[in-house]
Specification:
With 212 residues, the protein is α/β, with parallel strands linked by helices. It has helices at residues 36-45, 60-63, 66-72, 85-88, 171-182, 201-207; strands spanning 2-9, 14-21, 26-30, 49-54, 78-81, 112-114, 119-122, 125-131, 140-144, 149-153, 156-157, 160-161, 190-193, 199-200. The strands form three sheets. It has a six-stranded mixed sheet, covered by helices on one side. A six-stranded mixed sheet has the order 7-8-9-10-13-14. The chain has a two-stranded antiparallel sheet with strand order 11-12. Helix 1 links the parallel strand 3 and strand 4.
């Protein structure tokens, strides 16, 4: 039912996902890194209507186009984990201060916060929020159980895991978050990370060297 398109955008190649229910032609975008107009135009060209923007965590390369998207679509709901709002507003903590041309911050007044275990009816399915602290304090994954897909931001990668040496990161907590909350999902769950290639829960449980 769900069709997934990937736009790799921004200076560090962030995966921006456009997810469309082809029956209802409703769309969501996950992690708007850059080029807001390009993302919005991509949805329109696919004959869909953008309903929601979901953010996995507040690092600059995942929130970079949020303000521009809200300039284009002021009523667009934007969701993020409740424990990442401080990071979102702090350029030193979200790493945007490190790069001259990086977009800086997003005001918490512009977003709707989510907590672990929240569920939303979206794209004709029930989407579950899984909080996975470790890469950031309030990073979340978005799990569509009916379609068997997980959008995990920078928590889990093919053969690797996210960095934990940025502000609010915690390496031990990151590993435990992955093991306790992600590796317990069905093995055939398709995992779509914030950078790089898609993988599966089974592949990472069996071969990821950081989780052994």
């Amino acid at each position: 039912m769900l069709k997934i398109y990937i736009a790799v955008l921004g200076p560090v190649g962030t995966n921006c996902y456009i997810v469309i229910n082809e029956d209802s032609n409703e769309a969501v975008i996950i992690d708007a890194a850059d080029k807001a107009q390009k993302l919005v135009d991509s949805v329109v060209k696919k004959g869909a209507e953008l309903k929601t923007l979901l953010i996995t965590h507040a690092h600059w390369d995942h929130i970079g186009a949020v303000n521009d998207m809200l300039d284009i679509m002021p009523e667009l709901p934007v969701y993020i984990g409740e424990n990442d709002t401080d990071l979102m507003e702090n350029p030193a903590a979200n790493c945007s201060a490190w790069l001259a041309d990086a977009p800086g911050t997003v005001s918490r007044e512009k977003v709707i916060t989510l907590k672990d275990g929240d569920e939303m009816d979206i794209l004709g399915e029930t989407m579950k929020v899984i909080e996975v602290p470790g890469h950031t304090a309030g990073g979340v994954c978005y799990y569509f159980s009916e379609s068997g897909i997980l959008f995990c931001g920078d928590t889990l990668f093919q053969g690797s895991i996210g960095r934990s040496d940025f502000p609010t990161g915690d390496g031990e907590l990151l590993v435990s978050s992955i093991k306790d909350k992600l590796l317990t999902l069905p093995p055939d769950t398709k995992v779509y990370p914030g950078h790089g290639f898609a993988t599966t829960i089974q592949e990472e449980a069996e071969s990821n060297p950081f989780l052994s």
